[in-house]
Structures are given as structure tokens and as C-alpha cells.
Design a protein that fits this description.
Layout lengths: L2 H24 L5 E6 L10 E10 L9 E9 L3 E6 L13 E7 L9 E3 L3 H13 L7 H13 L12
Antiparallel strand pairs: 1-4, 2-3, 2-5, 5-6
Length: 164
Amino acid sequence: MQPNNRLVLGGLILGVILLMTSGLYAATSDLLSFQGKLTDSSGNPISGTYTITFKIYNVATGGAALWQEPQDVPVNAGNYSAILGSITPLGLAFNTDYWLSVKVGADAEMTPRYRLTPAPSAFYAKSAQDASTLGGQLPGDFAAATHNHNTIYGSSDKSVGNVV
């Protein structure tokens, strides 16, 4: 085999492997990362392990918690990080606005609550979900482009509802 042919074959094999594994990295997790800073009443950062209770609400103030989870969280120079849902599954659709509250030990819930906002990858996931729920009713230009794609590659399946 010629050196150039080996390079092409190696590139093709690498391309196939990347295509086969790309879906693994697109998977989403049912966990939510949260970082914060704790200080004492004088504003000095604290250290130690504290029981922090996280709650999620669908309102900025008042209301009943839709989810909650206490965690024993290590705090270093005021900084902490927690993975929400690692003890109690979140079980929320995240298709509406939510607010997160933080409560340390026996102290009152901190105010204001944190509004949860999507990461950039969530915008992409939402657009993919929206496209899949259109049930073949895609906008004209997109449907035409998809139909042309199927025609160019000789697919006998013209059902654009399954192509995203």
C-alpha cells in the first residue's frame, strides 16, 4: 500500500471512529453543578464542612420547594462546589423558570434566590428537541433543503420528520 493510501485509510478509520463516538459526548446529565462563597457575619471567608440544603422553586420568592437536597459540603477559604442531584434526583423537566435557594446549617434560607439559567449547550438541545417535535412540519426552506439532501444521497426515505 502506498504511503498516501495509508494516510487516507487512517484518516477514514479515524473519521468513522469519531462519528461513532460523537453521540457519547452529546449526552446530557441529570446533575447540576453549583459553586458559591460562604462568609461569616463580618464578611470573612470560612472553611470547614457545612451541611448546605439546596432547594429549587418555580418562583423567585415564596412558594413551595419542588426539589431539595442537603449535602455535607467542604468549604475552603469560603469557596465551595456542589453537584445537585447527586443524592436526590432532580426529577424536573427544566422547561420553565426555576430559582435555587441555599441554606447553611440551621441558618435561614439565603436571599435572594439564584435564578437558574441555561448553559449554551442547552439552547442547542432545545432547538434539536423543537425540531424533533414538529412531526415533519418543518419550515419550507429547511424541509426543502432536507428533501434535497435525501435526493442527493439517493435515500428512498423522504420522510423529513425523522431528519434533524
